[in-house]
UniProtKB/TrEMBL annotation:
GO terms for molecular function: dipeptidase activity; serine-type peptidase activity. InterPro entries: Class_I_gatase-like, Peptidase_S51. Hydrolyzes dipeptides containing N-terminal aspartate residues. Pfam families: Peptidase_S51. PANTHER family: ALPHA-ASPARTYL DIPEPTIDASE (PTHR20842:SF0), PROTEASE S51 ALPHA-ASPARTYL DIPEPTIDASE (PTHR20842). It comes from Chironomus riparius. This is dipeptidase E.
Amino acid sequence: MSKRQLLLLSSSNYHGHEFLQFARDWITDFLKKNNVSKILFIPYASTEPDSYTKYTEKVAKPLKEFGFDVEGIHESRDPVEAINNASAIFIGGGNTFHLLKTLYDKRIVEAIRSRVLDNGIPYIGSSAGTNVATVSINTTNDMPIVLPPTFYALQLLDFNINPHYLDPITDDKHRGETRAQRINEFHHINSSPVLGLREGSALLVDGDNATLIGHTKAILFCRNEDPQEFEPDSDLSFLVSSS
């Protein structure tokens, strides 16, 4: 049985709530269950110059209120050592391409994967951090502002996720592709299922069990099948049982 413990948020923001506050109970329960008091934050999705400290401080503020200490990986001289010593990892949102490239540049992809899958340390992802937890970043919404060595990601799961999933606006005048059409294009080439996580939702993975949690439904796209909607608290273990 897999040891992985994942909390994958569609976003760190949700309408009507301050940063991360909508997920307070999820994060607190998830970390306390795993006896975590300190989190290693990875801010590499940020593209602003010299922004890692500022981003880490932004994340640390609410997490401190929740009862947890936060350390930024950029504060360590050796990122691999920081991963190996971490009791929990949180990768935040931003640009997914920049994030993945930096994870490879820092040579920590395998270290994260091993710590999560082999040692069972908790992993929290939000937006881009959720994208990189999956098979690949092929279903991100972000622009490819940099080129990673590959689009394959941490592969903590063997399906893809589309964070910030948006439904078509029926009365809108925009005639560009909808999110569903983009995912359908992905499925012309790829067979991996894609879970569309609307803002306000998250996927909670405990070993070979998975549950949709949050305030909004999720939608699952599978190749050559009609999309399926899932209510909050739905059991999605069928997606991870073979991962």
